[in-house]
Amino acid sequence: MWFELIFLFLDLICYCLFGPTASLPENKYETVFHTDIFEAFTPLPEYPKNVTRSYTFELLKVYLAPDGFTRPVWSVNGQYPGPIIRANIGDRFNITVINRLGDPSAIHWHGIEQRGINWFDGVPGTTQCPIPNGINFSYVFDLQQSGTHWYHAHILAQLVEGLRGPIIIHDPDDPNKHEYDYEYVMTVADWYHTPTDDPRMLPLLHSANYKGFDPIPDSADISGVGQYNCTIPTCTPSKFATYKVKEGKKYRFRIINMSTMSHFWVSIDKHPLTIIETDGTPVRPATVDALRINIAQRYSVVVHANQPVDSYYIKARIPESSLPVNNYTFNFDSPLLKNDQVTGILRYEGAPDKLPTYNGPSINASDCYDMDASLLKPYPLNPPVPRDENLTTLEFEINVILRDNYLQGVMNNSTYSPNLTYPTNKRIIDGDNFSTSDNVYYYHGLNSPIQIVLNNTENRTHPFHLHGHSFWIIAQGEIGSHLQPLNSLKFNFDDPPFRDIITLKELSLNVIRYYANNPGVWLLHCHMEWHIELGMVVQLVELPEIFSKYVIPNDIHRLCTSI
């Protein structure tokens, strides 16, 4: 009886503080990790009421060999990539993180908008203090959007070390649910053999007078399995990532690019790919021979197993322009620069357990751009795209520069430096003042339309991610040698892509829009991990007049006192 009264009392407190979206689902569900990424699955059962799905993430350093080369890997429960976590839209995640890394950490839930609970976005210095070593912390949030997403560390370049995994949120009303019979998750990623704290990695990137580019990966992998040219004792040749299919069936492959810095082109010999989702948004089915997928992007594609029973190569290739290099760059002689393709296998049931006999033409991975916008039309169309009335515009000029002999990633000529002991969301509620290096920008007006203009003045592409929102990509164009006025662009208000990652072409002008309806502090940043480390980040304070009245839970405050 006392326990029931306590839970009712806590539920009432949550309702009063955070509103009805935080009310606890009545049903609980004993959740089991989907630990085998090569095991097909179907959507989760529907329940009369939403359920709470509880997971435990134990953050561990373990020795693994994804590409055959053994190295320490920052992992969730000893796995790379981390285990798949799944739920239905409307469910709740209760994820307890146990940090045993020996370093502070935190988990960002990429693609989950965290409406009304900004403090669970998992960004040290912005939404929380990091989780100290030896401390447990629970992220508890309701799932208000569906699709293919992922989780990853957002501190100390731990993403590079392997701390990342898939999130799948099923929607019983998915308009494309009848397009396939089974589902798989597939990840593509670059991979490094050298830990980021090695003097030749992050310390070199941050050193004075560094003249190189971003550190070059050693290899790449599909779903945690790659092939490295093993010529040293600590390396043993690995197998191929292998997905098994039944003749005549259709498979939804949820593809996630979990890379540090690499864009990929993905294809399967003799099997076209039909796109049905991008970054959590269902799209009208569109068929392509190869899929461009930039860092942190997600696509669902349908593969029809309609070829003769056999094995077929899955190919993921990194464009040359994704790996700029000179003689000062760490790992400038990486084998990946000579063999920029990693392969897996699509194997039909009944086919012999051997390598494919057919090897189709190599992918012509000619650029690091997004898929053509005409292939990514939301289905059904989202609410009306924000027009020009009452529009708030923020404009950012983006570059990597050498300032005072140090490389810096800059937005509007300013570099971001996080305050790990006093996060921005708490500073706003406390009424604290901000310095230039905090890179803080405000906008106001509940449900007002927001326009972000991104001017990429660099001669290379950048994948930009906005936390807390998906957005409409309504215009993109070249800027040439001078910034052009927006009216020189062609705007698409009818059916623009709706996603949370946009690829900025080199020397380009890009316009995105969304509605201000999620109070909090949200990062806007390049998703190349090296550029986050260089400070190519701004903090967008959305609706401070509302957010400043929020009450941050005590568990969040306790992290700051535990550091």
UniProtKB/TrEMBL annotation:
PROSITE patterns in alphabetical order: MULTICOPPER_OXIDASE2
Gene3D superfamilies per record: Cupredoxins - blue copper proteins
Superkingdom as given in the UniProt entry: Eukaryota
GO molecular function terms listed in the Swiss-Prot or TrEMBL record: copper ion binding; oxidoreductase activity
Signal peptide: 1-23
Keywords attached to this entry: Copper, Metal-binding, Oxidoreductase, Signal
Keyword Metal-binding annotated: yes
Family of the protein in this entry: Belongs to the multicopper oxidase family.
Protein name: 14634_t:CDS:1
Source species: Acaulospora morrowiae
Lineage: Eukaryota, Fungi, Fungi incertae sedis, Mucoromycota, Glomeromycotina
